[in-house]
Every structure is written in C-alpha cells, then in structure tokens.
Amino acid sequence: MDDAAAIRSCRAGDADAFRYLVERYQKHAMAHAVAILGNRTDAEDALQEAFLDAYRALDRFDEGRSFYSWFYTILRNRCWKLVGSRNRQDRAAADVELLAASGGNLDQTLSLGEALARLEAEGREILTLRHLDGLSYEEYPSGSEFQSAP
Q1: Which residues of the chain have pLDDT under 50?
Q2: What is the reported pTM?
Q3: 21 CB contacts (<8 Å, ≥6 apart)?
Q4: Signed CA dihedral, 49, 51, 52, 56: sign only
Q5: Would you say residue 14 lies in a domain?
Q6: Cβ atoms of 21 and 67 closer than 8 Å
C-alpha cells in the first residue's frame, strides 16, 4: 500500500487504512515533535492529537500534495499550541535523545544537545529539518504555509 491508496481507503470508510500512514510516519514525526517541544511526553500528546486531526481532515487533503508535508503542517501547529500553553521544561535531555537517534557520536551529541538547549523552539525546529530531513534552509516552510492546517 502507498500513501495515496491508504488515503483513498480511509475516504471510502476503511479506518484501519490510516494505520499504514501512522506506522509509516510516526517515528519521523516524533523526532520533529520532540525538536519543537523539547520533551517526549508533550511530543507524544501532540503527535496523537495531530494524527487525529489529520484523520478528521482527510476529506480536505489535496492529493497533489505529499501526505507528510500536509501532516507536518498539522503536527507543527499542534506543537506550537502546546508550546504556548505549557511551561517550558528542561530540553537538553530531549535534544540529546533526538540527536543520539540521528547517529551522531557521543561528544558531538552532547555538544549539540547543549547548543540546542540554548535555542528557542523555532531554531531547534529549523536545525532538525536541516539535519534530520536534509532540507536546505531555503526549503524551510514559511509561516504562511502553516496557516492552512486544520
């Protein structure tokens, strides 16, 4: 099954087809959520809510877009809502966990974790998109792109 087939099946009433999309993107999306929120607990909450939002909005999904790009917009909005509504927690441990998952060596991971902890959430997000996803800084989505998410 591919993304388009899963989305068509969901739209036809097969709620289980959405599981394919969740399983395919959950790990990658979790890394993004942790980068924005700074801790795994909040990231899990945001991720679960974002997948529910995406499921509910599948009828508005434009099949000309990439599912993950669309979903990332939803996830990002969900994360920023949490950033605005919850107190900031110590982010260093979450950043080290994120960087360790990306395959860096321990010294580099610790140094990068400390540097990321000093950044605001948006800076961590940009660096995560660059280093985990390989996006160029020019490819970083503009804020206006995120306004259309449910």
Answers
A1: 87-90, 143-150
A2: 0.61
A3: 3, 6, 7, 54, 67, 71
A4: positive
A5: no
A6: yes
